[in-house]
Each structure stands twice: as C-alpha cells, then as structure tokens.
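Task: complex structure prediction.
Instruction: return structure tokens for all chains below.
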Amino acid sequence: MWKSIVTLTVLLTLAVACPSFGQTGAPAAKADPAKLIAVLKSDAPFKDKADACRQLAVVGTPDAVPVLAALLGDDKLAHMARYALEPIPDPSVDAAFREALGKLKGKHLVGVIGSIGVRRDARAVLLLTKLLKDADAEVVRAAAGTLGRIGSADAARALEGALADAPAANQLVLCEGLFRCAEALAASKQRDEALGIYDRVRTLKAPHQVRAAALRGAILTRGPKGLPLLGESLRSDEYVLFAAAVRTAQEMPGGEVTDVLTRALDQKSADRQLLVIQALGGRADEKALPALLAAARLDLPAGQRVVLCGQARGLVKKTEQKKQLLAALGSIPSADAILLAMTYLDEPETRKDASVAVVAVAEKLLQGADAKKVGPQLVEPLQRVAQSAVDAELTQRARAALERAQAKGGKK
Amino acid sequence: MSKHQVPPQKRASARPPAHLTRRQFLKGAAAVGGAIAAPTFIPASALGLNGTVPPSGRIVLGGIGIGSRGTYMLNWMLGEADVRFVAVCDVRRSQRDAIKQRVDRHYANRDCATYSDLREMLATRTDLDAVLIATGDRWHALASILAMRAGKDVYSEKPSCMTIAEGQAVVATARRYGRVYQTGTQRLSEAHFTFANELLRTGRLGQVHTVRAHIAPWDAADMRHDWLAAEAQPPQNEVDWEKWLGPCPWRPYNAAYVRGAWRGHYDFHTSCIGEWGAHTFAQCQVALGLGQTSAVAYEYVNNAAGDGMVVRFANGVRMILQRGGWHGSCGVRYEGPDGWVAVADGYARPEVSSPTLLADYARLVADYVARTQRPMSHVRDFFNCVKSRRQTVANPEMMHRSMTTVHAANICMWLRRNLRYDPVREEFIDNAEANRLRTRAMREPWII
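Output:
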C-alpha cells in the first residue's frame, strides 16, 4: 500500500513537472524545479531521474545543486547530474564541482574536470594543477584540457610546467591547453604572455599540427610585426611550415601581406608556387594582379597559365585590367581559356577583347593536333562571337573558324 | 566531368615572373605532372610531409562511421584520382568489414585497415591526411575536433554539430590548427543552386526581402525523449554500444538505433529543421552573403514541425521555414521585387518568375566558377583545398553560423516562444532557458 502511494506520488509529480508539449524529458522552461528535485530524491526509475536532470538543465535553480552534486559519483546518474549542473548559472555549481575533484576517481572525475572546463572556473586552477600529476592518464589529459579552457596565466604556467617532463602521449593535449591559454591571453591584451607560449611551443619536437599551430599563433599574435616571420616561414625548408604560413597569410588582411606573398612567389618547386599563387589570388587585393598577369603571359604550359588567369580573374575590376587578362587568355591554346574569356562577352566594354580572345584561341586549337577532339567545344563560343557582330573582320574570322570546328565534328 | 570543373591536372603549378627562370619553372612543373601521373602510391608522410599534401601529391584518406550516406560519399571520393582511401573506423563490425571489402575491391588489394576506436586510428595512422566523417549527427562535431587535433583535414557530413557550443568548438579547432574542413552541404557546389545564388548576388531579383528554406517533410521539431525497449547488448566487437553513444546520455541498447532509428531522438538528432535546414539555411545564408553570421529573431509557430516559422536576419531579410510546396528535396526560394527563383533537388532547371532570368544560366555559373575558382563538385573543392590550404566553400564558420540558425529555430520550437539572438555575443537576448540549451554536457570521458 505504502509503495503504491509512493509510486503514485512520483508519477503525479512527473506528470506535473513535465510539460504537455513534448514527451517526458523535453527541455521545458515551464517545469517546476522543486518537483524535479523531488523525483531525484525519490526511488523513481533511472529513466525518470535522467529526465528530471535533463529538465533541470533548463530550469534548475541553486536549490537543485546539492541534490545533483550528491549524484556526481553515482555510477548511473553521474553524467546526467553534470548535464543538469553545467548550465545552471550559480557559483554554488562551481563550488560543488571543485569539491568533487577531491572525492572522485576515474571516469567520474574526468567528467567533473570536463564540466569545470565548460564553466571556465578560474578558482579550480590549483586543484587541476595537482591533477596534472595524477596516475590516471585520462585524468591528466582532462585536467590539461580544462586548464586550457580556463586560459589564465597561472593555468598556462601549470601546463608549461607539466610539459617539461610529459610523456609523449600527453604532449598533444598539453599543447592544446597551452594554445587555448595563449588565445585567451591574447584576447585579454596579454600579448607577450601569449607570444611566449607560441614561441616556446615552436621549439618543441612535436607533431606537425602542433608546430603549424604554434607558427600560426606566433605570426598572428605579433600583428604587423609578424610579417617578417611570415616571410621567413614562406621560405621554410619544411613544407609543413611553409604550408602553415600560406594558410596563415589567408587570415591576414592588408596590402603588406600581399607584398610578402608576392615576394615569396619565387619558390623552389612548382607545388609551392601554386600555393602562393592561389593565396595571392584569393586575397581580393589588386596589388597581386600585375604579378599574376605577367606570369600568365609567360611561355608556360597552357594549363598553368589558365590557373594564373583564373586567379587574376577574381581580382580584375577595371576595364583596362580586364583587357589585359583577355589579352593573356587570347594567347593560351586551351579550351578553358575560352571559357574564361567568354565570361566577358556580355560586357559592352570588354566584348570586343573577349571576342578577339575567343577567336584567337579557337584558331590556334583548330590548327593543333587535338582539333578534332576540341572542335565540338568551340562551336558555341564561336557562334556567340559570330552573332555579336562587334567587328566585321572578327565576325568573318569567327564564322570561318566555326565552319572548321563544325567540320571537325561539332554539330551545326 | 562538367565543363565548369577544373581538372586536378590543370591546377598544377604556375610561376610568376622575374624571380625564377622558365627552365626552373618547367622543371618544377614537370615534377608536378609526373607525380600526378605516377601509378606508385607514396604517401606524403613517407616524404616527411604528413599533415600537408602538396598539389602534386596524393591525399591519404580515412573514414569514420561510414554507413549508407558515407558509402555514397566514399564512392564519390574513390573516384578522385589523387585520393587514396586506406583505413576505416566504425563501432559496427559488419560495417567495418563491408567498407573494407568495398575499398579493397576498388584497389584490388587487401590493404584497407579497420578500427573500432577512432582515437586509436587517429593516433596511430599518422599517414592519414584527411578523414571523411559520416557517423550519426551525435558524433560529427566531436569526431571532427579530435581529427583536427590529430592533424587531419576533415570532410564532415551534416548536420555537423548538435549544439551551438559544438559548432564554436569546431571553428576554434580548425582555426587553431589551420586545418581544412568542409561540411557536407554539397548543394553549395551544384550548378542549379549556384545559379540561384548568383541571381541573388548580381541583383537580378532586386533587393531580396524573403527567402524560403525547405525543412524535412518527415520527423518533427518536437523531439522524442522516450527510449526504445532494451535489448540484449551484442558483444563489444560486434557493436560497441558505449562508443556508439559517445558523448550522449546513456540509454539501453536497441538494435534499431544502430540501424538508423536514432533519428527523431533528442539526444541524437537535430530534428526535421536540422535534417534539411543544415543544407537549406546554409544555402540561403551564403546566397545572402550572411554565411558568417546567424539570424537574429525567431517567431514561434504552433505546429509540430516549425513549418512557417519566420526567421529574421539583421539586414531585415526574412527566411521562412517551409515544409511543403516543393517538388524536390532541400529546396530554396529567393524572392525580390524584380523576380524570384526556386531550386530543389530533382528540378530539371531552376524555376524562375520570368524565363529571361534563365537566359544567363550558363554564363552565371561559369562566371562563378571563374571568379571563385570553385569546382562544381563539393568533394573536389575539399580536396583542392586540402592541397592549396584555402578555405573550403562550406568552411567551419559557415557551418557553425548556419547551424546556429538551425539550433536557435529548434530551441524556439522547444520552448514555444519567440526568441532573439545576438550573433556577435552568440547568446539569446533576455532568455536564460534558451541560453542554457546552447550546450549539453558530454558523457565522460568525452570532452571538447
């Protein structure tokens, strides 16, 4: 009888606590925290308690904290207790998590450490620092990550101290923590401290992504003073650092960065050249245009010149620049050059230059060994030029080329 | 190959003037061409380049959680000549084995390695340059973050984060390590959708005031919180249930979850709004030039799906969530004073208010490709960016911001009230409950 009454009471409590719209456990704002706490204190089934935690995550008040904190070591409900506690905006939650650090072990401790990180509780730094020497590697890694999320200068010092004699397996997470600290320090105007971290990590024998991240941070945190390091890294013998520098340059605004990239065009391999050219092309900075257009006029393989023109295509704005680009395209024996040139056929001020480019390239291609293969692709462009009637002579050349293209297999 | 695609070979190098002789340049270029053509497989890691693949190199790829959608993506990626798939990780043995068979058949060898623990694969396979992540939604962000921390570039299926906090973490991690990341909103690399975006961008529709975004016609915005009936848990080697759940709250095993019935459950899914909104919100926001921000206001609608919800951006443009009225999937429609355009999968051509708008179809798409140097192939864009270190078209910030709009729309439905959001501070305005729903505590040992 008594058990039935308890069960009925819990069910009624759940029915009231849960909103009408969703199913049990929906993240409702209207649920009554007191009734949800009552569920946790009852002998309700695990599912009901888990659902109560889920709702307390949305509506929980400081009253719920002691009840939830008592569950942090519960094998079944520890996670759901944190699920409820993490978003409650009250300092008693931080106190409860800090207190739990000294009581828990294993996965429950790892979970609480993670929650402290989510809440960025700076008062936990000392406790977490001690855990950097824990025998449980998972705990050490969690503490390192959380110190990083806290991101204060003393958190950074703790991580640097641990890095000195850390096993290789922990190096990544310690560096991750340090990067987070550096980001937080840089954001709070503690630039020198942040730079110190990046520069120290750069000297480590570490995996490629760590060295790349340290280089990125060292360049960006220096601001304009990072340009020499950027330029130097664009000449690095290590492809990883060179590529990281190219990537970093894409995060940096300003004509000075364009200048650094332009000076770095002189690379010792085609692979590296391509990366620098594409980074330049993506800058939306007209300053890169002369170098790209000049390169596109060189006697190089057609495919490479088209790539250069493609990058330049994204930068040209003035009519004169468009004409320079079209002149370059007109000298490239490639169907892709025609496709690029055609994008200017509809603009009155570039129509003639685009037509000249299309016809010139088509004529070259039709004289080449691949004329039969490429002929069908030329029909539409030549038809458009022939119909545009910008110039009698050009129209005549276009028609003649069109006939040859059609004879090569292009449909009439 | 579409005429708008730029073949990988054509992306081989070029050089500028004045610094290097033509002979030197051609020497380098020949090396590039030679490497692309070479049948021998030499991973970049063997050349001391792990973590960065030069344009002439091959990308060594692994897969995490490759189910049906993942297999579609895998098949697409296997077709790329400069990609080599070498390892798969899945908590389901049957799926690990199936993918291995598929890959080994493709390469006519037995080399594809299998893993059940992604941490092991990421830590030990230093030869992997990139990973394809096609798990269920619950794992997308966490797996992406772990992979990027391990120095891998990431192609992640959508919806690519379960919460706003997860999206922020993906952005921060990609930025921190300079990793290339692409979310699987592949319509950003398809011609019809690109045409619609270009119509908007070039002002052909006038000042667009309203966009409509398709949300999935199944499931609901109200999520399931029940558990399927408990079943006997299979051996860990068959299905590692703990790892399948990953960061989500524990619940008893039921085979249906593993077969795909996780959809619709709050812990595992982002609702009918996220299912297609991950695509269509991204599509609309990129078209509007708002890919780096999120919507600012959400008007609750009293139905189960969020159908008809009006979402507003800071510039006044309205985005209406629309479930019906399309004859294809993942549709978007842009409306301005001078006309409209609508596109969805399966449309033979974009629908427009006036046929004259279609006249420039080819030119607008070609112009986009020429201007942006983006191929009309989403995976190709990813692989090109892995090599060039350029941002992808569906980069982390775009993913996070459009998914923030998804999450905020969901939270609006769950709380049954209008919401305002500050995309700079990334918080809801005057709504503590909504702010609490920006994050969910991860189950130990998972931490981001």
